Amino acid sequence: MEYCIRQINIVYDLVSKKRNESEFLKLFNNALALTKHLKETRNMSNPQLNYKILYYEILDNILLQITTRFQNTDKLIFLQLADVSKFKYYSTNFPVNAFQNLGESYSDIFVDNNKLKVELEVLYHDEKYQDLHHVYDLVKIFESSGLKVILPEVYKLFSLVLTIPSTSVSVERSFSCLKRIKTYLRNSISQNRLSSLAIISIEKELIDQLKHTGAFYDEVINIYTSKKNRSIDLQYKS
Length: 238
What we know:
Radius of gyration: 27 Å
Number of strands: 0
Number of helices: 13
Structural class: mainly alpha
Oligomer: single chain
Shape: flat
Number of domains: 3
Helix content: 55-70%
Largest sheet: none
Distance between the termini: 62 Å
Order of helices and strands: HHHHHHHHHHHHH
């Protein structure tokens, strides 16, 4: 997590340093040398000014997107608790800041902080978990060995870490899907129907996989016909 935050700050600083007259002229002259001529713009009387405005608009948009998308990274410091590469270090240096951050961000989920801390300390001191590569490997061990019952708070924490999306792309894609489904002509669609259609559209890859299973269509028909009596028989009744 610390590495990601550093990289975000590096990119932000790099783009910010490009936002000046000298950097624009350098880019403009290089582009002019490559193309040999300027593409027509709306203001041909001063095309350089036109491209300069566009240059600053693009940089400002990038900076705005970085700020907007990563403004809550300070709330994700608790992800360091699940950094398996640091378990050996954590065995002697418990990540207090990350633990406090978890309590601030998810106090409604992790009520017993003392129990969670004890479970984490037990896990950090166990050498057989210090050579893993990813928290996903640890979760698989928890599920196969029954450790999720012995260390339930830690299992809850790692499950949370694995379900947090790294970007907002999936969320934005879901909203785009809703725009396609709930059109002007479908503005009276019920909430349940809208949710069902959205799930089918969002999870279309999973639906395509299920279609190749033999029982898929039979299960769909059984569920559909069991809802209420239909005017026609959709099932053969002996």
